[in-house]
Amino acid sequence: MINEVRLRHLTVDEALEKLDQYLHDAFVAGLYQVKVIHGKGTGTLRQVVRAELAKHPLVKSYRPGKYGEGEAGVTVVELASK
């Protein structure tokens, strides 16, 4: 399983549905860290994604991407342990 999900160019509803399914699949596959690629744009998708991550039961923590990871266009997610 790939350790990133691309949400750029999706509507908020499409992105949230894809994100939820991806987090579930990544958790089941045993991944411990994944990247959510939401792009920079206006920041709306980034805000919605991070709000969803903050309350998602499979997410242990998350942080903005660092230099070389995609910076503001990426959120790095640490998944909860099984």
What report would you give on this structure?
With 82 residues, this protein is α+β, with helices and mostly antiparallel strands. It has a single domain (4-79), classed as Ribosomal Protein S8, Chain: A, domain 1 (2-Layer Sandwich). It is 35% helix and 24% strand. Strands 1-2-4-3 form a four-stranded mixed sheet, covered by helices on one side. α1 crosses α2 (44-55). The radius of gyration is 11 Å and the shape is globular.
Mean pLDDT, to the nearest integer, reads 95
Gyration radius, rounded: 11 Å
Fill in the CATH topology.
Ribosomal Protein S8, Chain: A, domain 1
Strand order of the largest sheet: 1-2-4-3
Structural class: alpha+beta
Shape: globular
Largest sheet: 4 strands, mixed
From the 3D coordinates, which CATH architecture would you assign? Answer: 2-Layer Sandwich
- Helical residues, percent: 25-40%
Unreliable spans are: none
- CATH top level is Alpha Beta
| SSE order, one letter for each helix or strand | EHEHEE
Strand content: 15-25%
Termini, distance in Å? Answer: 17 Å
Which descriptors would you attach to this protein?
2 helices, 82 residues, alpha+beta
Give a short synopsis of this structure.
By secondary structure, the protein is of the alpha+beta class. It is built from 2 helices and 4 strands, in the order E-H-E-H-E-E.
